[in-house]
Amino acid sequence: xxxxxxxxxxxxxxxxxxxxxxxxxxxxxxxxxxxxxxxxxxxxxxxxxxxxxxxxxxxxxxxxxxxxxxxxxxxxxxxxxxxxxxxxxxxxxxxxxxxxxxxxxxxxxxxxxxxxxxxxxxxxxxxxxxxxxxxxxxxxxxxxxxxxxxxxxxxxxxxxxxxxxxxxxxxxxxxxxxxxxxxxxxxxxxxxxxxxxxxxxxxxxxxxxxxxxxxxxxxxxxxxxxxxxxxxxxxxxxxxxxxxxxxxxxxxxxxxxxxxxxxxxxxxxxxxxxxxxxxxxxxxxxxxxxxxxxxxxxxxxxxxxxxxxxxxxxxxxxxxxxxxxxxxxxxxxxxxxxxxxxxxxxxxxxxxxxxxxxxxxxxxxxxxxxxxxxxxxxxxxxxxxxxxxxxxxxxxxxxxxxxxxxxxxxxxxxx
Length: 415
Hints:
This protein is an alpha/beta fold. It is 35% helix and 21% strand. It has helices at 13-28, 51-69, 81-93, 138-142, 150-162, 188-198, 217-225, 242-248, 254-267, 286-299, 326-349, and strands at 5-9, 41-46, 75-80, 99-101, 120-124, 126-127, 146-147, 167-171, 204-207, 232-234, 272-279, 303-308, 355-364, 367-372, 383-386, 396-404, 409-413. Helix 5 (150-162) runs parallel beside helix 6 and helix 10 runs parallel beside helix 11. [4Fe-4S] cluster 1 binds at residues 12, 47, 81.
């Protein structure tokens, strides 16, 4: 009899897609998938993007090692970014793990075993990264950029459409690069037109991770014109000071970032812009950090996440002089997030009295939580739903917004 298998997927949604594909293949081969604490074989998909992610991955492995020592697990298999970077060290330090496997090459068209809630899913359209940001280890871990086959992508969209999910999140390290390794007949905007035609039953299509350098007019027009595509753009800028952007090797400038933000907001007036920034990059001065703070205050991103700079071996920035202390990095991070709380509170107040379509994400004892099209799963705000009728996971409801919190909204169902 084949052993039961459980999986723990850590890190980004791209990892989650890989985990779902691996589970799909295992099910095809006759394995039974169970909760990881009830499994005979545990599989861990790890992340090694920054120090916190590495620590989380190692802690998870150590927890499973304890279960194995207690006789509750037969085997542990670890794959993904952590062994891709540190396989030799891990083999030496964790002999209890049965196998460390680095980057896994997954063939197109693998069936999927859903880890996400049943009403939304992630669709990965590319692998790797063409950008060579000085702070980022991803290109060395994930390898060269590769657009996935168009037919395979569209077949998966059809599968998702048949399963009647409410939201499909289209992801990749930088999806604006889609098609650059193919011929000129395909790019992200053209792919989206094909996806929209296949997604007859899917309510929302969300685009995640767009590089500000590659936002085309054609792409903005399809986001604006296609009702299914969420008016939400995740546009990581990382910084705004020209010297820091150059050191980061971002291939852009303050003026270019401002230009693309202005173009997005003029083309899609009701858009929600999300960005991410890094605090404490090597050599960042107080003045340069203040420039970043002022830009955040003036630009009023609807959504924003911040990271303290993580010094990663193998990146160009690892060897930079003038490394910023952990205390200063953390202080600057806290300042950014405190400022964004104020910005978010101001942005949210504008929704009071307006009606939004909201996707029901959680149902418990007559209480409901959801998200608007301006909020991605797991990372953005929530909407507290007041409804007099019974709602189901994945329902779309129209809410009149009655109140706000720092990051969240409160609404009453209309009618």
